[in-house]
């Protein structure tokens, strides 16, 4: 979702009441591969070393989106399973890695007969879920020596920086203003709005569910990523807040305006930005 999509809240405000909304990432899946920067290869090594993984056991990626994290971590296990509630995400994942067991399923439907796992991973997805319920159900799916691994990352854009870059930085503030002109000033999510953003307080949720931790590992390669105009456009359309369905029949006009904005910022169509660090947060049942 994400990673990237799992269960979504269609409620307003603050996601306090829950209603599944299948349009959360409608149309976004096709833009992930181009618009989202890949996780650093060192992330898999860091998770392997922290958990002593040796190619045995099973991985479950919850809210797997098109499989970005699943595919990266799968070689560390004997078997990998990815679940996501968005049909488009699962379709993209099956195209990317047909050898992985991909399931169209809401996180709230776990355990779903999937069995137990050495690692259950969440990447950019847990904030969309009914967290207390999911944490409780997943705890029973983790084997005694296993762990919950939450990957925190922002892969559609890099960090804001005043440092010199080899190419112009993407004009993210202007992009946000353009999206707001089309969709309004309050963040969209499916058929609802998110005036207060998504849920936080993961540590409180995990403590209530009886997990021990957390252990935090940061992987920050800090490299400069060069990105094309097409990649920035895809990054915008990969977000739940600016997924293609929000624009309706205005989508071609929005994309044309977005491309004009990008060409004004970088006539050569090339951008650069520093990638964000990625954090792996480990909890144990």
From TrEMBL:
Gene3D superfamilies: Vaccinia Virus protein VP39 (3.40.50.150). One of its GO terms (molecular function) is methyltransferase activity. Keywords: Methyltransferase, Transferase. One of its GO terms (biological process) is methylation. Residues 60-133 form the Methyltransferase domain. It holds the Pfam family Methyltransf_25. PANTHER family: METHYLTRANSF_11 DOMAIN-CONTAINING PROTEIN, METHYLTRANSFERASE TYPE 11 DOMAIN-CONTAINING PROTEIN. This is Methyltransferase family protein.
């Amino acid at each position: 979702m994400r990673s990237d999509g799992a269960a979504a809240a269609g409620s307003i405000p603050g996601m306090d009441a829950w209603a599944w909304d299948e349009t959360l990432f409608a149309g976004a899946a096709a833009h992930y591969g181009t618009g989202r920067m890949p996780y650093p290869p060192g992330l898999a090594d860091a998770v392997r070393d922290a958990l002593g993984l040796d190619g045995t056991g099973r991985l479950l990626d919850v809210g797997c989106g098109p499989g970005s994290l699943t595919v990266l971590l799968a070689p560390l296990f004997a078997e990998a399973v990815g679940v996501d509630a968005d049909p488009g995400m699962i379709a993209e994942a099956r195209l990317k890695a047909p050898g992985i067991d991909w399931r169209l399923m809401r996180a709230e439907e776990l355990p779903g007969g999937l069995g137990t796992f050495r690692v259950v991973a969440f990447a950019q997805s847990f904030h969309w879920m009914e967290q207390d319920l999911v944490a409780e159900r997943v705890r029973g799916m983790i084997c005694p020596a296993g762990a919950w691994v939450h990957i925190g990352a922002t892969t559609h854009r890099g960090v804001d920086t005043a440092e010199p870059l080899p190419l112009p930085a993407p004009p993210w503030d202007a992009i946000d203003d353009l999206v707001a002109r089309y969709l309004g000033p309050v963040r969209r999510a499916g058929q609802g709005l998110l005036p207060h953003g998504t849920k936080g307080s993961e540590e409180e949720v995990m403590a209530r569910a009886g997990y021990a931790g957390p252990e935090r590992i940061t992987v920050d390669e800090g490299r400069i990523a060069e990105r094309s105009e097409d990649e920035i456009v895809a990054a915008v359309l990969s977000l739940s807040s600016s997924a293609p369905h929000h624009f309706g029949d205005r989508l071609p006009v929005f994309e044309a305006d977005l491309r004009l904005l990008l060409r004004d910022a970088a006539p050569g169509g090339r951008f650069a930005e520093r990638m964000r660090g990625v954090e792996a947060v480990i909890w144990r049942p």
